[in-house]
Design brief:
The complex is a heterodimer of chains A (612) and B (378). With 612 residues, chain A is an alpha/beta fold. In chain A, 33% of the residues lie in helices and 24% in strands. Chain A has three domains: 11-101, 2-Layer Sandwich (Nucleotidyltransferase, domain 5); 104-262, Rossmann fold; 289-393 and 413-601, no CATH class. Helix content of chain B is 10%, strand content 38%. Chain B has helices spanning 57-61, 68-71, 202-211, 223-230, 261-269, and strands at residues 9-22, 28-29, 36-37, 42-48, 52-56, 79-80, 85-88, 99-101, 106-111, 117-121, 125-130, 135-141, 145-156, 159-161, 165-171, 192-195, 215-221, 247-254, 274-278, 291-295, 322-325, 334-339, 345-346, 352-353, 355-360, 365-369, 373-377. Chain B has a 16-stranded mixed sheet that branches. In chain B, a hairpin with a 3-residue loop joins strand 12 (135-141) and strand 13. The two termini of chain B are 27 Å apart. The chains are: A alpha/beta (612), B mainly beta (378). Chains A and B meet through strand 3, helix 3, helix 4, helix 9 and helix 11 of A and strand 5, strand 10 and helix 4 of B.
Chain lengths: 612, 378
């Protein structure tokens, strides 16, 4: 159902078919603006007893019909275009969708050198919205038979093989192809078709790779993703991943052939669509951005720095199915440092395991909420560390250095994530989007990410970024209109000076100048303090900061800064806890500090009366 | 959102279970539709390709990859015995000849003129697929496997480890709130599925392994004991392949939690019968819970079991339903639904959620988010 390209879109229905829930939204053009007007949800129906994804889609759209009074469905068909039959309250101009049902797109990637072509292949697959099950390379430390056993046991949806620069040696990439052929890999879904494999390596090896893998896999050859060492060319391979996702993987999932026929644009993997909308917004506004989607099983991190997009998935850091793994990876002490009371270790461990085996439960008491939010800080922190390690410049590249670089020699492959250059953090996922107080979302992200200098924070209101990502491929204005007006809830701005000092010592002097005649506020922020100034969404203030001699607010130690800061549902937060953020080691001091911060921000109900 | 979900675990004295038994790769199905089989019947067989070994011949013989075929003694597809010469040099004086011999018995799979490696493969290993259940073959998927069907008593646990096994059900405790202790496990329990009560600690699990029990079904355990048993901290609940000596099934969760009386009473009535159990748990898309299946003969009535009951899907939650609270502060307590207010209710976290009122067995009442209860189904 491709829409008439000459006809402007006025009404759009979009769905995201998630593992458990299918979420539908209605977008309508009101005046000159696109707005998200209604939404509906229904359980995803990929699995038994329904085994047809379109049932859930129809149910979710039916909920929109009920709420909006618009007739969208004619039996099991979506009515297009809008205004069909002369009824202005009937039909939509286009239906679009994303999907992560059935575990999303699971890939294995292989390259020759781990830190070069294998890493480029990994970035390519992640950017295309995949979960990377394993990265194989000639120098990954595994013996050939171990690699072959691993390939055989994985059962991915798709394999991406890269390796070698164009015109370089063919031997190593052919060797990897031989290992894959020997493993006779089988796809995750179904027994009756060959595993899709994309070859995006040295073009001189294409013939040999085709000889080796052509009969054993559904081979697709595309441009080398690392044609020369100094350049990554991820686009062609990424597009091929999307094509094969639709042709092979989706086509095996129940009901997807029908869903594909309904959609007016190719169905995208959910994370690819989220990445696309973030990239679109960052480029449009000329900002550096970090986005995070913390789910039950995984945490996705997206970043756009200086226009370069990166995505990572921390496959086992999540708030329900994988919550126990957050404990295993972060360690008990790191989680407990955010909990404002003492708790028996065995009790805490049992509680976390019980959440893992019953993932749909919600915290009923305040201490349960505080424990979950403590765990989320660690999941967010670990996922960002993971992201920083992969969102890097190209490794193995020779760099020209001038005399001015002599004193600051950086190796190749430095992380692109520079917290000082970061303009906006966007949080998404239940724990951030549905925190009872928005302040809690803000502090979770500030504690986990430790932003430096001036940073704005926002949350996704109802997780509509996937829908907007796929919409941006059809109508960028509609997607960006809705993103700015309905999708994001701006929380406010955090100002965090860099440096450390004894608690109670002067960190910075500040002046906050409000618009509209409201009295400006002057004061001294001490080390160990958090201060909140309410500042509504859409309002802007001027913040002048004069740091102490050893403190930096982004332009050098002791150098004063004046910048505009935007408000939000939380406001302006001055964070004097120092960077890197350090919490007291002694338990009673740590608990006291946490309680003071929570009280200063009015973070939890009855903050001044909570006794433990 | 107009839907409320109350994930429930099935505990039913009589139902019909249908299970697909599929080979990991194409093979041969050995039974036909309508056949009656038992757990240990092999219903399908496949040949798992043998392990491969990569030998870089050009490095060992000092050749160029493209010249390798000229020096090969064995060709692609040829069978080889361990010690057979794979390739050899052709010097003018035989005394200087070097050869490379096969380290395995199997076949030569490929000879690469690009890399100079030769891939050898061991003979295929047979994989046998057991019926797992006593019952009938309801459907055959040619080359892939079968669908089994059996009339049985069926109990789902909440979490388990270890794979499929079968054995006689034996109760080791006399009440659902009694802990399973070391002294309760005797050599008599070897090869059995042992039912405990509220809790099994690390020392009990060690004893179970020593005694040789096949399965343990118990209300709860501590996370630290699970870690000790596995040797690592389980991060993600995808289990079933662990090899700790027995299959372990928790019916309630982590901590010391009395087994639901309904579950315990049913297991008690099934004592002495054969149970097929699996600890496989997967809590993601395609939820899988551990299970205890006690096959019943068609039309068979077991004393004390109401043959008319089935484990059909239920419509929704209603007042009077037996429920288990699955989150603090009432975690593990069992009661009845006493009220289902429709409106969203503010809970102490300040979230507004749909709740229900539960009446516990001591007559006390509590308001609990609907997401935090589980209907005891059956």
């Amino acid at each position: 159902m491709t829409p008439d390209p000459g006809r402007p879109l006025r009404t759009i229905v979009a769905t995201d078919c998630g593992s458990t829930t299918t979420k539908a939204i209605l977008i309508e053009k009101i005046g000159e603006e696109y707005r998200q007007t209604y939404r509906g949800e229904a359980p995803t129906t990929v699995e038994a007893p329904f085994e047809d994804v379109t049932r859930g889609v129809l149910n979710a759209i039916a909920e929109i019909e009920e709420l909006s009074g618009r007739r969208i469905l004619d039996g099991e068909k979506i009515i297009t275009p809008s205004g069909a039959g002369g009824n202005p309250k009937a039909g939509v101009d286009i239906y679009i969708s994303t999907s992560s049902a059935g575990g999303g797109l699971q890939m294995m990637v292989a390259g020759v050198v781990q830190s070069m072509t294998a890493e480029s292949a990994q970035r390519c697959a992640l950017g295309a919205g995949a979960i990377v099950m394993d990265v194989l390379s000639s120098n990954d430390g595994r013996l050939p038979h171990e690699k072959i056993e691993r390939i055989r046991s994985l059962r991915p949806d798709m394999v991406l093989l890269s390796g070698g620069t164009d015109g370089g040696t063919v031997m190593h990439v052919v060797e990897m192809a031989e290992y894959i052929a020997a493993a006779e890999p089988r796809p995750r879904l179904g027994m009756s078709y060959n595993l899709p494999l994309i070859y995006a390596g040295n073009k001189d090896a294409r013939e040999r790779v085709t000889d080796i893998l052509g009969k054993k896999t559904a081979l697709t050859v595309t441009d080398n993703l690392r044609p020369v060492l100094e350049k990554e060319n991820l686009g062609p391979a990424r597009n091929k991943i999307h094509d094969l996702f639709l042709e092979h993987v989706m086509a095996q999932a129940p009901g997807y052939k029908k869903l594909i026929s309904w959609a007016g644009a190719p169905i995208m993997p959910t994370p690819a669509a989220v990445g696309l909308i973030m990239e679109t917004i960052a480029k449009k506004q000329g900002i550096n951005l970090i986005g995070v989607d913390i789910g039950g099983a995984t945490t996705d991190v997206f970043s756009i720095f200086q226009g370069v997009f990166n995505r990572t998935v921390s496959a086992n850091l999540g708030m329900s199915y994988s919550i126990s793994n957050v404990l295993a990876e972060a360690g008990l002490d790191n989680i407990m440092r955010w909990v404002p009371f003492s708790i028996d270790e065995q009790d805490l461990r049992n509680r976390i395991k019980n959440k893992m085996i019953r993932p749909t439960t919600v915290p009923q008491t305040l201490d349960e909420l505080q424990i979950e939010q403590a765990i989320s800080r660690e999941a967010l922190r670990l996922a960002l560390i993971h992201h920083k390690s992969l969102a890097t410049g190209l490794k193995g590249v020779q760099q020209e250095r001038s005399i001015s670089d002599v004193f600051e020699q950086k190796g190749s492959g430095e992380s692109l994530v520079d917290m000082l250059q970061l303009n906006l953090i966007v949080g998404s996922g239940g724990i951030l989007s549905h925190a009872p107080r928005r302040l809690q979302s803000l502090l979770m992200m500030v504690d986990a990410y430790e932003p430096l200098g001036f940073t704005e924070l926002a949350v996704d209101s109802i997780f509509m970024m996937p829908h907007l990502g796929v919409l941006s491929t059809v109508d960028e204005k509609a997607a960006t209109d809705v993103f700015v007006r309905d999708c994001l809830i701006y929380l406010g701005t955090c100002v965090a000076p860099i440096g450390q000092g004894a608690w109670g010592e002067r960190c910075v002097d500040y002046t906050v100048t409000f618009p509209g005649g409201r009295d400006s506020v002057k004061g001294t922020l001490k080390f160990g303090e958090l201060r909140l100034f309410p500042l509504a969404a859409g309002e802007e203030v001027t913040v002048s900061v004069t740091p102490a001699r050893t403190v930096d607010v982004g332009v050098g130690r002791g150098v004063a800064v004046e910048r505009r800061a935007r408000g939000g549902v939380v406001g302006l937060v001055l964070d004097g806890r120092g960077r890197p953020l350090q919490l007291p080691i002694k338990e009673d001091e740590r608990v006291r500090a946490l309680k003071e911060w929570h009280k200063a921000l009015n973070l939890y109900p009855g903050e001044d009366t909570v006794k433990r | 959102m107009g839907h409320t979900y109350t994930p429930g675990l099935t505990v039913t004295p009589r139902t019909v279970i249908s299970k697909r038994r599929i080979l990991p790769l194409p093979g041969t199905v050995l039974v036909k539709a309508g056949d009656t089989v038992v757990s240990s019947t092999v219903v399908a067989r496949a040949e798992l390709p043998g392990k491969v070994l990569v030998v870089n011949l050009v490095n060992q013989l000092g050749l160029l990859p493209e010249d390798l075929p000229d020096y090969m003694v064995k060709r692609e597809g040829e069978t080889i015995e361990k010690g057979d010469v794979l390739a050899e040099t052709k010097p003018l004086i035989k005394w200087f000849k070097t050869d490379v011999r096969s380290p395995i018995t199997g076949t030569v799979e490929t000879i690469s003129t690009a890399t100079g490696q030769v891939i050898l493969r061991e003979p295929p290993r047979p994989v046998e697929l057991f019926a797992y259940l006593d019952g009938a073959v309801a459907e055959v998927f040619p080359g892939q496997g079968v669908r089994m069907e059996t009339t049985c008593a069926f109990i789902q646990g909440i979490f388990g480890i270890g794979g499929e096994t079968w054995g006689e059900v034996v109760l080791a405790v006399s009440s659902p709130d009694e802990d399973l202790t070391e002294s309760l496990l005797t050599p008599h329990h070897a090869g059995k599925i042992v039912v405990g009560g509220a809790f099994a600690g690390a020392e009990v699990l060690a004893r179970a392994r020593a005694v040789g029990v096949k399965g343990i079904v118990v209300g709860g355990m501590h996370d630290k004991d699970l870690r000790a048993l596995l040797g690592y901290d389980l991060g993600v609940a995808i289990t079933g392949t662990e090899n700790v000596g027995f299959t372990l099934i928790l019916t309630e969760g982590f901590g010391r939690i009395p087994m639901a009386r309904k579950t315990f009473e049913l297991l008690k009535k099934l004592g002495g019968r054969k149970a097929c159990v699996s600890g496989a748990t997967q809590i993601r898309a395609g939820v899988m819970r551990p299970e205890i299946i006690v096959p019943l003969a068609p039309g068979e009535r077991v004393e004390g079991i109401d043959a008319g009951q089935t484990g059909e899907a239920r419509g929704g939650i209603k007042v009077g339903d037996p429920v288990r609270v699955i989150r603090e502060p009432f975690f593990g307590r069992i009661g009845q639904v006493a009220g289902l207010p429709a409106e969203l209710t503010l809970i102490p976290t300040e979230s507004r959620v749909r709740v229900l009122e539960v009446m516990f067995s001591d007559g006390s009442r509590a308001v609990v988010p609907r997401a935090n209860i589980e209907v005891i189904e059956g």
